[in-house]
Amino acid sequence: MLLLNATYEPLTALSARRAIVLLICDKADTVHHDPEGSVVHSAGAELTVPSVIRLRTYVRVPYRARVPMTRAALMHRDRYRCGYCGGKAETIDHVVPRSRGGEHSWENCVASCAPCNHRKADKLLSELGWTLRTPLVSPKGPHWRLLSTTAELDPLWLQYLGEGAA
């Protein structure tokens, strides 16, 4: 489940259980639900499990300067494509290998297919004559916090996540 702030800003992904508790306690409203989705039954009621819910009151989110770099967020940033050949990415590669002083950061990590990652090993791009397909930058925007916590995205969520999420 996607949890939106009262302003429709994406906050986080929730478990179905937590979403249902928020709805029952009147702290959130359903924005989207899947009519063919699962239904939760109790002794006196039944509730369709929503896909997107919105808090009724605004929650202030503390500002963070950088989006945490996770495997899921890096794959989303690179659109699941290898930064070297454009094939389907399966792994993460450090452009400047850690064995040569490279950092584990947005500006030094790229999604990579297994063959390119294996071929590159602990070499520098200049040693191989390779170039990156796109510049490596740290993503910005509120939706990237959500993308750093989940690998699977419900297509209904994309309209709330803004550009770059798809």
Portion of residues in beta strands equals 15-25%
Instruction: List the total number of helices.
Output: 6
The residue-averaged pLDDT reads 85
Domain module tally: 2
* Largest beta-sheet characterization: 4 strands, mixed
Q: Quick one: how many beta strands?
A: 8
Give the SSE string. EEHEEEEHEEHHHH
The portion of residues assigned to helices is 10-25%
How far apart the termini lie comes to 17 Å
Main-sheet strand order equals 2-1-6-3
Unreliable sequence segments: none
Shape: elongated
* Structural Rg: 20 Å
Structural class: alpha+beta
Q: What would you note in describing this structure?
A:
By secondary structure, this protein is an alpha+beta fold. It has two domains: 2-63 and 143-161, no CATH class; 71-128, no CATH class. It has six helices and eight strands. The longest helix is centred in the N-terminal third of the chain and has 9 residues, at 16-24. The model has no long low-confidence stretch (mean pLDDT 85).
